[in-house]
Amino acid sequence: MTVEAGLDVELLKSEIRKTYAAVSEDPDTDRIFPTGRAWAADLGYPPELLANVPDGSAESFAGVANPFSFGALLPGERVLDLGCGAGTDTLVAAQMVRPDGSVVGIDMTPQMLAKARASATEMGADVEFVESEAELLPFPDESFDVLISNGVIDLIPDKDAVFSEIFRVLRPGGRIQVADVTIQRPVSEEGKRNIDLWTG
To answer: pTM of this prediction?
Structure first.
């Protein structure tokens, strides 16, 4: 896919960062999309694993569905959480893959990553968080067994670049567990350039 003509991608990324920085800094504000621990519970997250996620991350959870509904991760797996936000999915994944697995969360919003790191420390989880963008992942080829992502790929205009990077960093036979937003009807050309429609 080519990025839509007339779409200011850098402005879009800036607005997305602002939106999710606000979710991080003021999680109790009502938004057009649901957030928080109760929302994750409604989506069917494993209650015993969700209960261990510190409030700092859970209160800023902004996923759209449950990537673990495709199946639990396995002990020992290497996992990448693409667009990890405040780290709820990352910290749930870390509990599934222990004791020998590893989880890396990647996000482009510094405020969300700060929350994720603080929660990982509070929880004693051995995870890594990296600030970067999905279109150019800073990892070697075949680094991961599983990629999880929740409500992020829909926000990225160049989906071909994202999926190319996902397939590059997954080992042969690796799997993808993505929860995301889809549309049923084509979006108008004007709509594709409307940043407010991208950011919700």
So the answer is: 0.90
